Every structure is written in C-alpha cells, then in structure tokens.
Amino acid sequence: MTETIQTIDQLRALYPDAKPVVRQKELSALDRHARRFVELSPFVILGTQGATGNVDTSPRGGPPGVVRVASDRTLLLPDLAGNNRLDSLQNIVERPAVSLIFLIPGINETLRVRGRAEIVVAEAMLQTFEVDGKRPRSVLRITVDAVYLHCGKALMHAALWDPEIRIDRASLPSLGAMIRDQIGEGLTPEQ
User: Fold this and answer.
1) pTM of this prediction?
2) Could you tell me the mean pLDDT of each successive run of 10 residues in the chain, 191 residues long?
3) Which residues form a coiled coil (predicted)?
4) Which string of DSSP letters, residue by residue, matches 69-97?
C-alpha cells in the first residue's frame, strides 16, 4: 500500500461519498441568504492562482459590506490600501479564476464563492468606494460561478470566536520585530 494518494480513485476509496445535500446546496448565483452573508461580512479571504501555478490567499477586510453585491451574479471587492506586493492582482491578470471565503465574527458558518475576476479602474466605479477622501486604486468585479454556505465545523473545532482561548498579543513579537528578525539589515521594528 502506498503512503500517499496519487489518483482520484485512491482518494475516493478513502472517503465516503458526500451526502446529496452537500452537492445540492451549491448555487450558481447569490440568493437572499448569500447576499445577506456578504452584506454582514467584514472579512473575506481571496484565493488566486497565477500562470505558473503559484497560489495566493490574501485577507481582505473593512466595515461590514466591504464587498458589495452588484447583482445575483456579480460581487465588487475594492482593493484597499495594502502592502503593494500585488500577488493576487497579478494572478488575476494571468488567470481570472478566484475563490472567496466570507467570515462574520461570531458566526461559525462561512460562505464560499467561486468565480472569475477582472480588475476595474474606471473612475466612476472607484468613486463609489471612496471613504474619507480615499478611494481604492482598483476594484475586483467578480462574476459568480458557484456559491454555497459551508458548515461551521472548522471554526467550531478552532473555537475561533471564543474569547476564552484568545492568544495574548504579547505571545508574539510585533510584526515589525518579526520582519526585522527575518530580513535583518539594520531595520528597526518601526520601519
């Protein structure tokens, strides 16, 4: 017996078939529940893949509704100020397929969306996302291909929203201190 799975047949032999409802819950458009989930979510994880196969997952956040529902098949995600690595955006230029996981604090279930993104820089679109005189440099317009609610088992196992298990921030150095230690070269944590 091999120690690794090499084929889909081997994988399917290891796991039972998914229950019919697990497959049936996948929709091709946003229904009222999915729309509401997006409206309440202040945090989404964006997954992309570049032409060479490099995969990126990027956290995106803002006030609830940071991602707008433009229609039952269209989401708008502003690219708010970040580190300018542009990993996700470069991947989207090369391959438009994206995957999103929406989270709502205190809710164990998540919303998963698969689709295709394009990077919009039209001034009229950017203006609609302006907050306090700041606007994004671009907006992802995502055409929804599949959407489904995902059970909360992973978040329940992690007890992600349980304040009793929160890790004290002092358990890790500051981000600046960790990066300084990783790349050195005389940087201070503030830099």
Assistant:
1) 0.89
2) 85 85 84 97 96 93 93 95 85 97 96 97 93 90 96 88 89 85 73 62
3) none
4) EEETTEEEEE--S--S--HHHHHHHH--E
